């Protein structure tokens, strides 16, 4: 009898908690601090606020191990021989890129031409930005996507059903780079240097992806897939209750491709055959993933895979995601399935869209666990 009454009380108090929880006002209060998730950690929050609770989404196998006990892992592709003009090795690399883009939508690249010293320095520069005094950072805090530096916590804070344990600053580095004086002092030089180098990597990747589609090497660059570059610098603070939240909810990217530099802490996972597969840190490697817009123009040949980032007691985790995409910049250029890939047996699956319209729809929807691509299907 005593146990029953205890149960009733607890159910009642749970009901009361739900009534008392006003997500909209708590989100607004969090946003108005302009201190992000780091501000909560700095304030010594032991229990994470309710707005960060992850959704009880599909119960997928959390394991990176297949039934026969083998460890799943995404391909690691060595690009070194491309710089030696070895045509045989180039064909092999293109074949590996094709296979990875069609099956995983993800692969890692090594010997890509960016010195490890530059990769380490950009991570340090991002860390310096977040470790500045809050009052200094607040001058960059905004929800206006057209500002030169957009720093905030969760781009979809007011849309998404769950807030992620992550702060971000974003800079559109191409086609119209910001004035140098608009960039944060603490990471200005390395942002410029890293962006220049990652643009070269992107152009090379689009050549390999073009060849992997059976097109001439310049095809994707000729249609301006590398025109836009947005650099997103993420900061995932340590979390006291990582099992309750996520660093980034399940999503695919609204880009042509994304090239990611991650640190040693890990937590990035890709969804493959209902398994969450860990994308392990490899020193000197960059993670490449196919974005929605490349899936659209390849008419589903290449796969924009869903991925997420786990929250972690360790931290902070730093990552730098380079999105090849013009984002919200005004553009009239239409993208649809590439005509050379179409046939009677392979008719277009998507309607034409501008990058801006695609990104606007994606951003308005937020990370709600669903793909934006079906909205653009014929």
From TrEMBL:
<dbReference type="InterPro" id="IPR005123">
    <property type="entry name" value="Oxoglu/Fe-dep_dioxygenase_dom"/>
</dbReference>
<protein>
    <submittedName>
        <fullName>1-aminocyclopropane-1-carboxylate oxidase homolog 3-like</fullName>
    </submittedName>
</protein>
<keyword id="KW-0408">Iron</keyword>
<feature type="domain" description="Fe2OG dioxygenase">
    <location>
        <begin position="227"/>
        <end position="327"/>
    </location>
</feature>
<dbReference type="GO" id="GO:0046872">
    <property type="term" value="F:metal ion binding"/>
</dbReference>
<dbReference type="InterPro" id="IPR026992">
    <property type="entry name" value="DIOX_N"/>
</dbReference>
<dbReference type="Pfam" id="PF03171">
    <property type="entry name" value="2OG-FeII_Oxy"/>
</dbReference>
<dbReference type="GO" id="GO:0051213">
    <property type="term" value="F:dioxygenase activity"/>
</dbReference>
<dbReference type="InterPro" id="IPR044861">
    <property type="entry name" value="IPNS-like_FE2OG_OXY"/>
</dbReference>
<dbReference type="InterPro" id="IPR027443">
    <property type="entry name" value="IPNS-like_sf"/>
</dbReference>
<dbReference type="Pfam" id="PF14226">
    <property type="entry name" value="DIOX_N"/>
</dbReference>
<keyword id="KW-0479">Metal-binding</keyword>
<keyword id="KW-0560">Oxidoreductase</keyword>
<comment type="similarity">
    <text>Belongs to the iron/ascorbate-dependent oxidoreductase family.</text>
</comment>
């Amino acid at each position: 009898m005593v146990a029953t009454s205890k149960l009733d009380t607890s159910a009642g108090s749970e009901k009361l908690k739900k009534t008392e929880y006003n997500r909209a006002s708590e989100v607004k209060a969090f946003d108005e601090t302009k201190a992000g998730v780091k501000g909560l950690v700095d304030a010594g929050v032991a229990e994470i606020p309710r707005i960060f609770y992850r959704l009880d989404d599909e119960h997928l196998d959390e394991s990176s191990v297949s039934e026969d006990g083998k460890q799943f892992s995404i391909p690691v592709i060595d690009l070194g021989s491309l710089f030696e003009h070895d045509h045989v090795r180039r064909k092999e690399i293109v074949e590996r890129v094709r296979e990875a883009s069609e099956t995983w939508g993800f692969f890692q690249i090594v010997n890509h031409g960016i010195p490890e010293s530059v990769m380490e320095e950009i991570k340090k520069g991002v860390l310096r930005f977040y470790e500045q005094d809050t009052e200094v950072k607040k001058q960059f805090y905004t929800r206006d996507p057209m500002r030169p530096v957009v720093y905030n916590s969760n781009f979809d804070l007011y849309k998404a059903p769950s807030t992620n344990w992550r702060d971000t600053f974003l800079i559109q580095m191409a086609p119209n780079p910001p004035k140098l004086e608009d960039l944060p002092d603490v990471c200005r030089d390395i942002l410029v240097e890293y962006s220049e180098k990652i643009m070269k990597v992107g152009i090379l990747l689009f050549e390999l992806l073009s060849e992997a589609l059976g097109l001439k090497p310049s095809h994707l660059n000729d249609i301006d897939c590398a025109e836009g570059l947005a650099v997103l610098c993420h900061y995932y603070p340590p979390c006291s209750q990582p099992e309750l939240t996520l660093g980034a909810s399940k999503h695919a990217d609204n880009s042509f491709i994304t090239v990611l530099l991650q640190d040693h802490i890990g937590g990035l996972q890709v969804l493959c055959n209902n398994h969450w597969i860990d994308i392990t840190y490899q020193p000197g490697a960059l993670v490449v993933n196919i974005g929605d817009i490349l899936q659209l123009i390849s008419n589903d040949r290449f796969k924009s895979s869903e991925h997420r980032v786990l929250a972690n007691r360790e931290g902070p985790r730093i990552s730098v995601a380079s999105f090849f995409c013009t984002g919200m910049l005004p553009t009239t250029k239409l993208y649809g399935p590439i005509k050379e890939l179409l046939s009677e047996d392979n008719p277009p699956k998507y309607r034409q869209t501008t990058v801006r319209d695609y990104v606007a729809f994606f951003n308005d929807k937020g990370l709600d666990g669903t793909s934006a691509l079906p909205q653009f299907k014929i």
